[in-house]
Amino acid sequence: MKKYFKTAKLLLIIILIFIFIGTSGGSSFLYADIAGYSSSKPLSLALPAYAYGIAENAKGLAPPPVEEVLQTPEPEPEPEITENIQVICVPKTDKIAYLTFDDGPCETGKTLNTIAVLDLLAEYDIKATFFVLGVNAKKYPDIILRQFNEGHEIGNHTYSHVNPATVDDEKLIRQVRTTNTIIKKITGKKPTIFRAPYGSPLTVSQSKGIGMRRLGWDLDTLDWRGTSVEKIIEKVEKACKNGKKRIRILFHDGHSQGLREVIDLLISHGYCFDTLKNYKLKK
Fold first, then answer.
1. Active site members
2. What is the pLDDT, as a whole number, of residue 17?
């Protein structure tokens, strides 16, 4: 009886030893005869990382802490879309139109006035040339300043629209100089170009006394006579079709009927716009 008791006790001890080895992780190593290994060497069972996580979870343990968390990058903001600005003229074209306006500035007119003309030019982003009278510049300095600030060229058209052919040289020169003084006081810049009223030619002494570049026109709209828009368009169309590469067009601030139509027509024929300050007789 004692013999059986000792045997049972020995078996119990052996079972307890195996249970202890199993719970302590000793089962991670096995002794076996596998190709390349001797029975005296432990064989480590290499499991993938996720298998260890599964094993740990199976034991009721928390998974190992995550060292890095991959975040989905936020999408880059789309570039801001700006409105496309219409290009009125081809900058390097050799076809240039010079819009010019005489006798201003004025706040009222039979058709348009200087303010309305400036608004229309601003709509098309066109720079023009204004030959102003000294008496009007003195009366409307704010309009002169607007013309200057918006990039238009301001020319001298005498003080009170005197005809060079009917006044003495001294009076004409005095009128021009007085107008220059008024404009410079408003804008800070003295005009460099002159247009004689009525397109009258100057004598040698008058030209010398004035000392400014004199510029006329190629196409007179005769808007001051009340010429219809259709007639004005017909004139401009003819000049375009004749292949004229540089056209100086004469309007008057207080009239200027058909100005929008003339601008659209010139654009359709490929003309660019510039001020007379940059006008050249030949290429």
1. 102, 252
2. 67
